[in-house]
Amino acid sequence: MVAKTDAVHEEELRVEEGNGIPAAASDSKSMIESCCSSPSVVTLTQKLVAEVIGTYFVIFAGCGSVVVNKLYGEVVTFPGISVTWGLIVMVMIYTVGHISGAHFNPAVTLTFAIFGRFPFKQVPFYMMAQLWGSLLASGTLALMFDVTPKAFFGTVPVGSDVQSFAIEIVISFLLMFVVCGVGTDNRASGEFAGVAVGMTIMLNVFVAGPISGASMNPARTLGPAIVKNNYRGIWVYFLGPPQLAQFLEHLFTTS
């Protein structure tokens, strides 16, 4: 009984220190531990650097495919853009997941914090790191390409703001649903967490890209908006995720 109590205490300490998955998880959780958690020996500075770099490459590759497609005769094509977004997220999850948890998205960070799998005191730092990564990537693209208003690589509603808001709610829910399923529920097998999240983003871009730009990520929207000074309809991409995170907490709370 004492051993069990000590194990529970150790698990709580590890969760408090920033681990995405409790220590009591079985060996089948090893991959998801590396993808959605970070070991206690990693410093906060290292985590933030990993988030900046990971977010940078996600935005650079994803938004870069949009710019290249618009400026060079649609050589990438819309399906190519969708696949690019999915692939870069998947690759970055497996690259820096063992360091920072591979959030790259303020909504994901908030979701993990609400679930008790990430310390709230680190949330502002993670969000700032993600925004910096997005700003740096957007600035790089703006310097590399002559980004005309038609080739804007941010997210703006194509139809009405309400329509874009509705579809952002749906696709953000799907993304958070998958993230919670593979990243916070101890009953799930997490070896393919990166694949699951990457595929979800790819599918969401396929569905919502022509309507809202398929943001699902406030940092993805805000970085290009600041760099190119284009804030049209930006409220659409900021209202939904916090409410979704709280709702999903009730679905995936385990005893």
UniProtKB/TrEMBL annotation:
<dbReference type="InterPro" id="IPR023271">
    <property type="entry name" value="Aquaporin-like"/>
</dbReference>
<feature type="transmembrane region" description="Helical">
    <location>
        <begin position="48"/>
        <end position="68"/>
    </location>
</feature>
<dbReference type="GO" id="GO:0015267">
    <property type="term" value="F:channel activity"/>
</dbReference>
<dbReference type="InterPro" id="IPR034294">
    <property type="entry name" value="Aquaporin_transptr"/>
</dbReference>
<dbReference type="Pfam" id="PF00230">
    <property type="entry name" value="MIP"/>
</dbReference>
<protein>
    <submittedName>
        <fullName>Uncharacterized protein</fullName>
    </submittedName>
</protein>
<feature type="transmembrane region" description="Helical">
    <location>
        <begin position="192"/>
        <end position="211"/>
    </location>
</feature>
<dbReference type="GO" id="GO:0016020">
    <property type="term" value="C:membrane"/>
</dbReference>
<dbReference type="InterPro" id="IPR000425">
    <property type="entry name" value="MIP"/>
</dbReference>
<comment type="similarity">
    <text>Belongs to the MIP/aquaporin (TC 1.A.8) family.</text>
</comment>
<keyword id="KW-0812">Transmembrane</keyword>
<keyword id="KW-1133">Transmembrane helix</keyword>
<feature type="transmembrane region" description="Helical">
    <location>
        <begin position="165"/>
        <end position="185"/>
    </location>
</feature>
<keyword id="KW-0472">Membrane</keyword>
<feature type="transmembrane region" description="Helical">
    <location>
        <begin position="125"/>
        <end position="145"/>
    </location>
</feature>
<feature type="transmembrane region" description="Helical">
    <location>
        <begin position="75"/>
        <end position="96"/>
    </location>
</feature>
<keyword id="KW-0813">Transport</keyword>
<dbReference type="InterPro" id="IPR022357">
    <property type="entry name" value="MIP_CS"/>
</dbReference>
